[in-house]
């Protein structure tokens, strides 16, 4: 059973999302909150698999709420998905840097919304290739570091290759095909790289890969 927490200051939207989720046999909404501080309290209480968090809220916004969740080792199993009205922007980028697994625009079609919740619950990054490219082209334009950030030197050649392919938006199966290895081995390389780089999930791995200079924006 996938346990979901809803955090949004608009009751009507929360009700709509909950109505969709409640229809699914494998998903349970464990609680709702109207602001980030309340949401943080409920996340600590219920420890859901997925926390759907609005990016702009009173008291505590979605970015800071995400940052506090990501910083708490007891909440390592909570996958944050940011909810936004406006699509990808600097706020969403900052939420990804803070530890969010991805984001959803609130006018998403129901089928894609439910799929996204299941993807997030598995621990996969919720970043479509088109969004990843916009992230890269729009926000990773500052002078990049040299590719020797914390942990990068500890990566094996195969782990580094896997990180580059993750940053280019490939799935585990596609990475396995590219590297001529099994999907399980590809996943192992990625997980070891995340551990060495101290990244919470694939979304943070993508951001780090570009900000560190391991991958250049034009390589995507």
Automatic annotation (TrEMBL):
It comes from the Bacteria. Residues 3-121 form the Response regulatory domain. Residues 148-213 form the HTH luxR-type domain. Keywords: DNA-binding, Phosphoprotein, Transcription, Transcription regulation. It holds the Pfam family GerE. The keyword Transcription regulation applies. The modification 4-aspartylphosphate is found at residue 54. InterPro entries: NreC/VraR/RcsB-like_REC, Sig_transdc_resp-reg_receiver, Tscrpt_reg_LuxR_C, WalR-like. This is Response regulator. The keyword Phosphoprotein applies.
């Amino acid at each position: 059973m996938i346990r979901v927490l809803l955090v949004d200051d608009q009751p009507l939207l929360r009700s709509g999302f909950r109505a969709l989720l409640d229809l699914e046999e494998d998903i349970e909404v464990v609680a709702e909150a109207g602001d980030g501080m309340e949401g943080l309290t409920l996340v600590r209480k219920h420890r859901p698999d997925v926390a759907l968090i609005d990016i702009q809220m009173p008291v505590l916004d979605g970015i800071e709420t995400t940052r506090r969740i990501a910083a708490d080792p007891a909440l390592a199993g909570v996958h944050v998905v940011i909810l936004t009205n406006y699509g990808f922007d600097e706020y969403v980028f900052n939420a990804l840097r803070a530890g969010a697994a991805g984001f959803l625009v609130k006018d998403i079609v129901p089928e894609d919304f439910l799929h996204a919740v299941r993807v997030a619950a598995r621990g996969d990054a919720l970043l479509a290739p088109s969004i990843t490219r916009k992230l890269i082209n729009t926000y990773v334009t500052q002078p990049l570091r040299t590719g020797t950030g914390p942990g990068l030197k500890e990566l094996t050649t195969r782990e580094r290759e896997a990180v580059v392919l993750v940053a280019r938006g490939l799935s585990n199966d596609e990475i396995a095909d590219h590297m001529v290895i099994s999907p399980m081995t590809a996943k192992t390389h990625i997980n070891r790289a995340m551990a060495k780089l101290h990244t919470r999930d694939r979304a943070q791995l993508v951001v780090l890969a570009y900000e560190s200079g391991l991958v250049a924006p034009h390589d995507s």
